[in-house]
Design a protein that fits this description.
By secondary structure, this protein is of the alpha+beta class. It is 24% helix and 28% strand.
């Protein structure tokens, strides 16, 4: 029996594909564990939820952090996801020569991609050591908060979050990076 080896792309190769036009400028893709994944188009509800979450997070994080919307993160040699939102230390000015590598919070807005965000993306973010991963679950109108990344052989990328909490409208959640700050679910789910 012959074993088949899958060719994985590195972040450098992926960025070169974009620079040379192999990937079109308007092509919505991201690199996840060496695979180039096509991103689904956004509906109005999804776009609205991203904007609501962006406003809530900008208000919560203010000066010492940069809230990024659908911009790349350099998480691993083979991964350059573009989450709906990420919060990184410092200012956008700090990232002139490379994408941020250590987000303190990653947020995905999910409707049709809920299973993928819960399994594949959660495992990828856990492997990268992202301490706080939130899914704005549009179908169930709740926030899923994933914390405490740890190795787990059965997980897609070998890591998983050990703590999962669900928050609903009317409740508040504190980011790991700012435990004294409380973000209203009414603002996130607007």
């Amino acid at each position: 029996m012959r074993e088949v080896e899958v060719r994985r792309w590195t972040r450098h190769e992926y960025e070169r594909m974009a620079e040379t036009g192999i990937l079109a400028p308007d092509e919505r893709v991201e690199l996840l564990d060496g695979e180039i994944i096509r991103v689904t188009p956004q509906g109005a509800r999804h776009a609205r939820a991203i904007r609501a979450a962006e406003e809530a997070l900008r208000s919560a994080f203010q000066r010492a952090y940069d809230v990024r919307v659908q911009l790349p993160l350099a998480l691993h040699l083979f991964s350059e996801p573009e989450p709906d939102l990420s919060v990184v230390p410092g200012s956008w000015r700090d990232y002139e020569t490379g994408h941020p590598e250590s987000p303190v919070l990653v947020v995905e807005v999910a409707d049709a991609t809920l299973a993928f965000d819960r399994d594949d993306k959660a495992s990828l973010y856990a492997r990268a050591g992202v301490p706080d991963y939130w899914i704005v679950n549009l179908a169930d109108r709740r926030l899923e908060v994933y914390r405490d990344p740890a190795p787990e052989a059965a997980a897609r990328h070998g890591w998983a979050y050990q703590s999962v909490q669900h928050f609903h409208p009317g409740e508040r959640v504190s980011p790991v990076a700012l435990p004294e700050t409380r973000v209203s679910l009414d603002d996130l789910l607007a």
